């Protein structure tokens, strides 16, 4: 299965947002009419109080209980959906900007906090129904505060999302050097990869261990390690091997072509990229194989 990228994360978020709008604008009024005239909760500061009183009236009358439970089920599902949508988008966006391993990752806490506050709001509403069926004023201020915190985190998440979109749009045409600790550090005056014009140009990867810097033993092990290093650089920039459009393989012995080719093919699921295979006299650190790639961001 192909991993999510920034575009699919944005689509996921958009679908979640549209679904929630439909839920609030269409399903809630339909539920209200089908439940014997249950008033649609307003969107003011005292919305949880209105929801609690209306829901209790329905249950007390013994009508519309199934619809109310369905209503609450959807209200539980949506926080999880938009929390995940925001978190995935922010995470991939930060990777695209080269901030995936920095303190900027704390932005991911905003959508998760919004979802948690949403769940806490629901729990408090149920508590008001169960503990104070005739008087909801005791917990109403707490519920309102939690609701405000939820909307605050939601608003900050949306602001961070828009900021990432703007930053990606501005930087998409610029040259940006990127790197990851999951692949060997550059052993010369070059970068692990360079992002420019919507493409990621990955430097040649040897079969080196990222931590020790030692070459793997044997041709097959080096080929697998080189491709693993390539995958790590792509993943830390929000891409996968499916985004690769061109590769170049350097071999010190062309008789190794078939063995490397079999390993290479296992890293792709179809729609193979364009490729060149070249025999060279020698490779850095006396490596047996080196692989470079060009990938396109989507």
Q: Distance N terminus to C terminus?
A: 17 Å
Number of helices: 7
What level of helicity do the residues show?
40-55%
Biggest beta-sheet profile? 6 strands, mixed
Strand content: 5-15%
Structural class: alpha+beta
Order of helices and strands: HHHHHEEEHEHEE
> What sort of overall outline do the alpha carbons produce when their principal axes are compared?
elongated
Strand order of the largest sheet: 1-2-3-6-4-5
Which regions contain 5 or more consecutive residues with pLDDT less than 50? 37-49
Output the radius of gyration.
Answer: 27 Å
Mean pLDDT metric: 78
User: What's the number of extended β-strand segments?
Assistant: 6
Can you give a write-up of this model?
- The model is unreliable at 37-49 (pLDDT under 50).
- Helix content is 53%, strand content 12%.
- It is α+β, with helices and mostly antiparallel strands.
- It has helices spanning 6-34, 47-61, 65-96, 109-131, 140-171, 219-235, 257-265, and strands at residues 176-178, 193-196, 199-206, 244-251, 274-279, 289-296.
- It is elongated and about 80 Å long.
In short:
This protein has 298 residues and is of the alpha+beta class.
SSE blueprint and pairings:
Elements: H1 6-34, H2 47-61, H3 65-96, H4 109-131, H5 140-171, E1 176-178, E2 193-196, E3 199-206, H6 219-235, E4 244-251, H7 257-265, E5 274-279, E6 289-296
Parallel strand pairs: 4-5
Antiparallel strand pairs: 1-2, 2-3, 3-6, 4-6
